[in-house]
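retry 2 of 3: previous attempt timed out while embedding magnesium ion. Reduced batch size to 1 and resubmitted. Inputs unchanged:
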Amino acid sequence: MKLTSRDYIKGILGRDIGILSKAITLIESEKEEHQAIAREILTECVKVKSNTIRVGITGVPGAGKSTFIEALGSYLVKEKGYTIAVLAIDPSSKRTKGSILGDKTRMSNLSTMKDVYIRPTASSGVLGGVAKTTRETLILCEAAGFEIILIETVGVGQSEIEVKEMVDFFLLLAIAGAGDELQGIKRGIMEMVDAIVVNKADGLNIENSEKTVREIENALHLFPLGNSTWKPQVITCSSIENKGIETVWEIIENYATLARSNGYFQENRKKQDIQVFQNFLSKKILQFFLENKNTRLLINQYEKRIADNAEDPYTAAYKIFNQIVKE
Ligand SMILES: Nc1nc2c(ncn2[C@@H]2O[C@H](COP(=O)(O)OP(=O)(O)O)[C@@H](O)[C@H]2O)c(=O)[nH]1
Ligand SMILES: [Mg+2]
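retry 2 succeeded.
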């Protein structure tokens, strides 16, 4: 039987995991008929008021993000009684079975827990890309009553920034001796993070990890505090030995308490909503123009002219724009 949008909404609000999963698949679909139902579902789900914390976790492949989420997630469910949703984005893999299986085995405890929902997010190259479906998935999960949302992203380019823009707390999982350049510690990441957690601080690696913490702390001193007035924290942890996980959660809770009391938490979410609106609107406008056959043709012609040195790129853009607006 085909589900109506009403069925979907009822299922999601009742935390029916099967229906939630199907709804997310609709959201990821590019078929117009799916998109139409997806929009109706989303419109209802956005209205649901919840008091969640959204945590983004980034770091180079192999830093231990999935293992860390397994440890943190298990702690949150078992010790704190939370329900959690885990969204994993891997922009490098086009949803290969390999990476999903890999994540599932890293999260073997979590994936069997009743109060946990794990969803790998598809990454597609089309307009809207990674963030659109991930953010909408997040909204559906919150409507389904999941209280903590953990989003795993590979620290590569745009996806990292997109995730930062949809979470309340952004955490970099680093490791000792992997090279600052590689881990993004020297580029923009320092200004983006609320905590840097040096993972794999176990066995022979403990001393090195402590040293890395001190180095990162020294580097962090150079950055002024952001509007939240929160001072980014740096600590070690071992996801495999379950050490430091509790402290990481304390840090996230402290952040939430501070940011909620000084209003930054709410402000930040509003700012994010406006950003989503602006991005979505510009994508829609662009899509609208690009769907027009004549416009596409015109663009192709001009691209050829630019390649042939018959036109400079600026003049070409102006010409096309003026022509479209006149139509
Ligand atoms: N020694 C040690 N190894 C870890 C720890 N966390 C993860 N690993 C290992 O690091 C490898 C990559 O972990 P994974 O969670 O898949 O990393 P991801 O690519 O960042 O998600 C795996 O072999 C893990 O077992 C840790 O705390 N200590
Ligand atoms: Mg992983």
